[in-house]
Amino acid sequence: MALFDGKFYDFYTHPAPGDRESVALMAAVAKKYGYSGIAVTNLTENDLYMADKSGNFSIFPAFEIPNKRAKLRDEIKKRKEDASILIVKGTDEYLTREAAETEGLDILLQPQKFNNVLAKIASDNSVTLGFNIGSIIHMRGEVRVRELVLMKANLKHARKYDMRMILTGDPHSHYDIRSPREMAALSGLIDMTEKEAFDAMSTTPLGILKRKSPDYVQEGIEII
Amino acid sequence: MKTLPTLRDKKRYMAFEVMSEQVISRAELSHEIFASACSLFGDAGCSDINSSLLSYDGKYGIVRCAKGKTKEIRAALACISKVRGTRISILTLGISGTIKGAMEKFIQQTLINKSEPDKEDKQ
Asked: Is any Cβ of chain A less than 8 angstroms from the Cβ of B62?
């Protein structure tokens, strides 16, 4: 299947903070499973030092903005010029709205109570919608059913407003990493097509990296 | 009594590799695969998948499923994260139409690649 020969990325991983071995182990397993890079939340300088040693595999810094209502907009505005990938977890309606309305945010992960109005605003602000496949892996029973329902609804909004999507396994250790094909199979449970899953693990992350590069000017403008 | 060859359902054989904190026994893994598939797809879905663990040596294994249900069994294997409190990750190596094919093309090939890491890097 030629679809799965591209470069794949997982932009929401959490190895033990400050533990070089944990980052290196996660990078080694991700590379073995077919990923070209991972983004580690709240990465330290020491972790980046390890990243340089791992050859043709990249580790990017990501920043998960704390879920504090008052500071969300300021934090996004302050950090939007940084090299870190900015992520907000949409744990409630207020946070989801704040995140969708603020330009400069990269990923809005698993928003609760997402609706057509917020989807339109998020799409206009080039916010990528994140799907946390890790919740399907680790949850069981009623909680998993609710997560599946939520993700199916979010997928419908993303399709309607042509939002970019991203898939993450939310790994906390190297045992939580799943290969891109398995992630695509799991995303099939929420009616995501293989092409959409491929784009969510390859095309969209590459687009975010391009936007974060120092050469990037604006959408549609390129330095030749 | 055997089923007529023309009435037999076509099957697929999925080779996989297990990465776990401790060695998982065959019975435990078999039970976990069945539980995971049943939890995800229900009893009726599980009967359509018709999965069965054929071989497992503590590291590599082959699971059988119905043709056209490979995506479902892949998802069921990916959903296994713990067995008896031991953290586990299952990587699907490939799918074949015969047990021999799954064994030779995926499991033996993976072992050869592991014994010759330089050759693998060049590819």
From this structure: no
* Longest CA pairwise span in chain B (Å): 52
Q: Quick check: is A175 in a domain?
A: yes
Cβ atoms of residues A116 and A96 within 8 Å: no
Q: What residues form DSSP beta bridges with B56?
A: B61
| Candidate from A33, A138, A181 with C-beta closest to B74 | A181
DSSP state of B16: E
ipTM score of complex? 0.89
In a domain, A223, yes or no: no
Report strand pairing: B60-66 vs B11-20.
antiparallel
Residue A222 lies in a domain: no
Range of the domain at A171: 9-212
Residue pLDDT tens, chain A, 224 long:
567 878 999 999 988 766 677 888 899 999 999 999 999 987 766 666 555 555 688 888 898 888 777 778 888 888 877 888 999 998 888 889 988 988 888 999 999 889 999 999 999 998 999 999 999 999 998 999 999 999 999 999 999 999 999 999 999 999 999 999 999 999 999 999 999 999 999 999 999 998 888 777 777 777 77
Query: Is A13 a domain residue?
Result: yes
Nearest CA in chain B to A144: B40
The domains found in chain B, sorted by start residue, are 9-101 (3.30.70.3250)
Pairing between β-strand B82-83 and β-strand B86-96 as defined by DSSP bridges: antiparallel
Residues of A in contact with B88 (CB under 8 A): 175
B57 to chain A, any CB pair closer than 8 A? The answer is no
Instruction: Report yes or no: B23 at the A interface, CB cutoff 8 Å.
Output: no
CATH of the domain at A170: 3.20.20.140
